[in-house]
Records
---
Amino acid sequence: MVIDFTGTIYSTLKNTR
């Protein structure tokens, strides 16, 4: 679950960049 949450946040940040 934590990995999934972190993955989602990371993906969003990467997308914003």
---
Amino acid sequence: MPPLSETIRNGISDSLARTQLWLNTPNGRGVLKCTVAYTIASLATFVPFLANFLGKPEGKHVVATITVYFHPARSVGSMIEAILIAVVAVAYAETVSLLSMVTSVFFGSTMHLVTLSHVLVVVVFIGGGFGFMGWVKQRMLNPLVNVGSTLAALAIIGVVTKESHVMSNVFSNEKVLQVFKMLVMGITTTTAVNLLLWRTSARTSLRETMNRVSIPLGDMLYMITNSFLSGSEEGLVSDGFTAASTHYAKSYAQMMKDMREAKFEHYFLGHEEIYEHERTVARSMETLAQALGGLRNATNTQLEQLKHPKQLSPKASGTASPNTARQLFEQFNESITMSMTGVRQNLCRILHEPQFGQPPSYEINVDEDLRRNLMDSLSTFDTARSDALQGLYDRIEQMASSHESTRANLEEVAAACGHFTFSLQSFGEDVLQYLDVLDDLEYVIIRKSRSWRWLLWWKTGAEEDRNKAIRLFESAEADTLMRTRQRSVNVADGSAAVPAPVDLRTWYNAPDLNKILGWFWRNLSALFKKMARDDIQFGLKVGIGAALWAMLAFLEETRELYTEWRGEWGLLSFIIVCSFTVGAANTVSLARFIGTLFGALFSVINWKISHGYALALIPLGWLTSFINFYLVIQHGKASLGRISLLAYNVSTLYAYRVKRKADGNDATEDGQFSQPDIMEIAKRRAIAVTAGIIWGLVVCRVIWPISAAGSSRRACLFCIYRWASSGSEALSLSFSAVKGPRAISNPANKLLCRDMLPIWIA
């Protein structure tokens, strides 16, 4: 048995080796990039020159907080998107801050209506401003938009509620200018670290992911065809099939993520045409996956018939037996096995072949020999399939020529065989189409023309081209699940129109109603319908909750309490925590509460160790950021890690600024200051953040609860309603085409359509 010291030494050595290997992974490098950006941004608090550049107002730790939310552990395309969103967020925050200050000065100082000025600021600029951000968050459903909303809220809160200029009806651009400087410094730091340290390209990652996506498709194709040929479902329920399906799901999700981020890189470089073809390749892969799902369903249908064959009638021909279905299937397999095996082999080779070549160039490399072999095998398989099916039906005629029910049962087996072979033939043609799409992409890459026409969206005539600048922020996989279909029945000339019943919900459209009253109720109904939308409801929830909290900063009775206990951090916590559904609010609130406690604990420990000296706080802050970014990047605990660093920043970095003032080393402040009490500071910040979390829970659970289960039920009911409406309309159109346009008004025909509707939906 080795001595204890050697065991410890070997354990430390193994841990260091594993850590070194992890640091060379994308996640490890991402964590290091985040810690570097955070450490550089924290220098805005520790370095006197940078602190003096930011001016006299407090809050210089916001520079470090920006790098926490806009972290550099992302691709260049994602960074471009983050910069664009940050620019919009900064412009919005500055506009709201300036307008709130102008409103306060005009109504408070000029008109001497102080109360009115405060009411306008709280209702319009706090309630309306934050409500608009909530509407944008729910409308876009983009994590980076959520981060941009947080930064905008941070800037607005710092100007409107934290400083006394708006409350005192005095115009001052000092805080507005400082917020602008901090935002620019934080975003610039993140961008510089992202581009200069281990830069990653979403375009390269997309090619790598596309190579991986096709491999599990080939694996699943092999197991599906093998299950069909063997007549056993072992391949479909095996661990290998489950692993291949899981691998495809993960690779597909990563491909869609890379596709969205690569879009920004292509648009920025002027390669919009390349992106459009890459998206076509991705859609072609999605088509292959859907076709593979149809192939699996066809196999399940065949296996179900073999497992539970229908009993043939005793009046059938004597050649029939309970195993007739199995005999037919085996006869069909004997005729088709060789050609099907050839098709499967060529398809699997193409899907397993990396069509985008090897790193680092990932050049498209379509094997023409494989393409020709696939075309030849598909032609042979098509002929063999037709002959095998013809032979199968001839055999059915011989076995069950004397009884119709027996023939129908046997024809179900033949139809299932035909369904599978037709699906396999279609899948092979889809693979050929996939290779053609790759050829088109290769041609576009070779030409590689640059164009930034999407910037001139107002000069293009087509509506799709005009929306390209807007579609830049849309997800690559964001296709409308259900589109509104409008069909009209062309009534023959001379036929009497069927009078439509008056809907009680749209009574204001009646022709005999007063026009003014009808216009009023019509617009009021449209307003209520819009307010019932999810994004509008969430915006109202955020705006009302923020206004009620910010009101405490403007009331004389609560203003001192709001300032002393740092109510602005509670308001920011409310904005971060407030979610659309109750379940999301519960999940986020718990993580942020735990993160707040950890952040306060880190703050106290680091301060006690360093005694408030910058040379010790900087490496300790790096270590703290490493732990939290490890949670964010490696384990996906963004809510926990971010709020922990936020609580650490508002406590430790603020305490350092107070210590510098107390030591007389701050050139921006004059007067006497006491030494900071880190326990008191951390306690007040933690209580403020926790109070904001609790207020978010109160708003989401008590004042305006929205259940995710209820929303899902309404969505499902809406889907069923749309399907039923489409089915009823389709049946009506079919019936009208057969019986005439007046036939559908017959009550008996209406009942017939109603009875046929469930069958159509099924």
